[in-house]
Amino acid sequence: MFVADAIPGERVVARVTDVQHDRYWRAETLEVLRASADRRPHVWPEASVERAPEQRAGGAEFGHIRVDRQRDLKAEVLRDALARMGGVELDTPVRPVDPALALGASLDLGTGYRTRMRLHVAGDGTVGPYAARSHTVVPVASVPLAVPELARIAPIAERFPGARAVDLVAPSVGDPEVVVVTGERMPRAARPTIEERVGDRRFRLDRDGFWQVHRGAAATLTRAVQELVDADLFDPRAANLDLYGGVGLLAAAIGDRFGETVRITSVESDARATEHAGANLADWVGARAVTVRVDRFLDDLAAEAGNGALAADRARFRDATVVLDPPRSGAGRHVIERLAELAPRQLVYVACDPVALARDVGLLRERGYELVEVRAFDLFPNTHHVEAVARLTAIV
Ligand SMILES: C[S@@+](CC[C@H](N)C(=O)[O-])C[C@H]1O[C@@H](n2cnc3c(N)ncnc32)[C@H](O)[C@@H]1O
Question: Structure pTM?
Answer without folding.
Answer: 0.96
